Amino acid sequence: MNGMVIGIDFGTTQSKMALLDEFGRAKSIRNAEGDEITPTVVTFEDGETPIVGMEAYRQALSQPQYTLMDFKLKLGSDEILYPSKSGKKYTAIDLTALVLSKLKRDAEAALGGSVNAAVLTCPANFQDHQRQALLDAAQRAGLEVKRLVPEPSAAALAYGLQRGSDQTFFVSDLGGGTFDATVARIQNQNLEVLGTSGLPQVGGRNFDHATIQHLLKEFESKAGFRPDGKQDMAFMEDVRERAEQAKVALASREKTTVTLGARGKYASIELTRATFEKLTAPLVAQTVGTCNDLLTLVGLSWEKIDKLIFVGGGSKAVGVKEAMEKASGRRISQDIDPLRAVAYGAAIQGAIEAGGFVLDGRAIPAPKIQLSDVLAYAVGCMVDEPNLGFSNAVIVPRHSRIPSRQTRTFRLKDAAQVHAEIVLLQGNEGDPADQCLRLGQMELSDLPADASLPPRIEITLDFDKNGLCSASGKDTLSGKQNQMKIDYSKGVSRMHRS
Ligand SMILES: Nc1ncnc2c1ncn2[C@@H]1O[C@H](COP(=O)(O)OP(=O)(O)OP(=O)(O)O)[C@@H](O)[C@H]1O
Ligand SMILES: [Mg+2]
Predict the structure, then answer these.
(1) Distance (Å, rounded) from C-alpha 163 to C-alpha 157?
(2) Where does the pLDDT of residue 231 fall: very low under 50, low under 70, confident under 90, or very high at 90 and above?
(3) Burial of 27 from C-beta contacts in 10 A (0-12 / 13-18 / 19+)
(4) Which ligand is nearest to the CA of 312?
(5) For residue 32, what pLDDT band results from cuts at 50, 70 and 90?
(6) pLDDT surpasses 50 at 489
(7) CA of 223 to the centre of ligand 2 (A)
(8) Which residues surround ligand 1 with Cβ inside 6 Å?
(9) What is the crossing angle of helices 341-354 and 151-162, to 10°?
(10) H or E stretch at 291
(11) How far apart are CA 180 and CA 77, in angstroms?
């Protein structure tokens, strides 16, 4: 299998794999259980031996204390999410690597050969350290990541490849854990992302949480007590699962009944569509607001959007599409598979990265489509201005095309200054530093003092095709240079805008 690159959509709740066939169509790769979808769940049998996927999901009920979910959202943090009985410590990277290892193994079994390279997807506004963490996990799983593609861009690729005519379209991806929105244009087989936005903490699981709170309240009023997370762990896991099942049921039914039991007390709770929609209305409003804001940001109106594409399992929940159709006055296109579109897009990009490949003697061609993506946020440098205080001076504006390299020059604050600490911030021009995300910092030291204080500190930011940032600083007076060292320690920036 020379040069094969598969597509992997590592989802918060479920992961999917795909590969292009000889006709240029994306197909799911089934896992060892024969399913197209693998729950992103890890459980530790006897508290020690990891099990991944559907079996882990099933065991969540019987051993919730050993079961981990939603760890994709923790990528980039060093938090120990699970210490095994023998003392082995697992972070989100370790758990992600376990899932990716299973996917790789299963793909190899399904395809009958070794799988060493993949295109992976990630939420559009995944930050530098989160992207890096995902790449590290893939490396540990033995996968070379040929490209990291934002999830809505991947869905746009899957959609764009099918289109004969040029058009501008809107992709909305409500997954299990995150919401992403992207505006894209396809023209002469060039897929250009115009802008992207998202809610990193809004997904189907939040719809479940809203439902869980309601079910717990109802259970309490019927059973006379409120179960607690510690004493009734299995009950809480049961409510989570039943809340999700109720959400799925309400997508096609007017009402459903949820029966819950704890400490020998049982209660049947009726849940109607109307109640569910009321419970989840604030979440739906947030997604619609994000889409409207994005459109304004890219200078378009809904009339200019030819198609609305909805992907992600969460978008099947009742009320989500309806609210969007109402807000946009546009019908949602039905001609894309909402659960698999992201993996399909990753598979398309995989074949592009491979330049085509051969599988079982069949030539898989590289699709004739090119993705041009943008940076989801602005990145700048912390400056200390007399009137603004510590604030952000943007070096790379939001929606810059990636790869991107941009430079901005700064003045030092004091004539006697011989040291500069440069702090990179994610945020808009002039935003107070404490409202920005601190990406990292670097230092330039032993600088010659300069009484004239001209703009002289040149900061260059490079964003590669995966959206990963590297930075360098140069003192143009002395020629001193430094590379950015990403760390999260505190620092101050004694510089001014040039
Ligand atoms: N028929 C349905 N009705 C309502 N919700 C559904 C339905 N089917 C799936 N879901 C929900 O979709 C979510 C999973 O969707 P998806 O596979 O797109 O997410 P993911 O890729 O794991 O997450 P993310 O993209 O946020 O990382 C879950 O919250 C699930 O409950
Ligand atoms: Mg997803």
Answers:
(1) 10
(2) confident
(3) middle
(4) 1
(5) very high
(6) no
(7) 37
(8) 11-14, 72, 151, 175-178, 203-205, 244, 247-248, 251, 312-314, 316-317, 339
(9) 80
(10) helix 273-297
(11) 21
Domains and CATH numbers, the chain: 6-202+283-373 (3.30.420.40), 204-278 (3.90.640.10), 375-497 (2.60.34.10)
At 434-476, the pLDDT tens digits run: 898 888 888 888 999 888 888 999 999 999 999 988 899 999 9
CA of 72 to the centre of ligand 2 (A): 11
The pLDDT of residue 485 is 61
**What is the distance between the alpha carbons of residues 39 and 388, in angstroms, rounded to a whole number?**
48
User: According to the model, what pLDDT value does residue 397 have?
Assistant: 96
pLDDT for the residue numbered 378: 95
Helical axes 233-250 vs 273-297, angle rounded to 10°:
70
End-to-end CA distance of the chain: 54
Nearest CA, atom 3, ligand 1 = 248
| Residue 81 main-chain phi, psi, to 5 deg | -90, -25
What's the CA-to-centroid distance between 457 and ligand 2, angstroms?
41
Strand, helix or coil for residue 497: strand
Calpha distance 156→154 (Å, rounded): 5
pLDDT at 443: 87
Question: Within 10 A of 221 (CB to CB), how many other CB atoms are there?
Answer: 11
Q: What is the 3-state composition of the chain as percent helix, strand, coil, each rounded to the nearest 5? A: 30, 35, 35
Do the bridges between strand 457-463 and strand 437-444 make them parallel or antiparallel, or are there none, so unpaired?
A: unpaired
Tokens representing 480? 């001193």
Which three-class secondary structure string do you get for 405-449? EEEEEEEECCCCCCCEEEEEEECCCCCEHHHCEEEEEEEECCCCC
Q: What is the pLDDT, as a whole number, of residue 492?
A: 46
CA R_g for the chain = 25
| Best residue for ligand 1 mutational test, from 14, 340, 344 (most atoms within 8 Å of Cβ) | 14
Q: Do residues 129 and 265 make contact, with C-beta atoms less than 8 angstroms apart? A: no
3-state per-residue secondary structure call for 349-386: HHHHHHCCEEECCEEECCCCCEEEEECCCCEEEEEEEC
Distance CA 253, CA 257 (A): 11
Distance CA 174, CA 180 (A): 7
Residue type, 483: Q
* pLDDT of the residue at 490: 41
At 437 the pLDDT is: 86
- Which of the 8 DSSP states describes residue 317? S
Q: Single out the residue of 177, 275, 256 nearest to residue 217, CA to CA.
A: 275
pLDDT band at 496 (very low <50, low <70, confident <90, very high): low
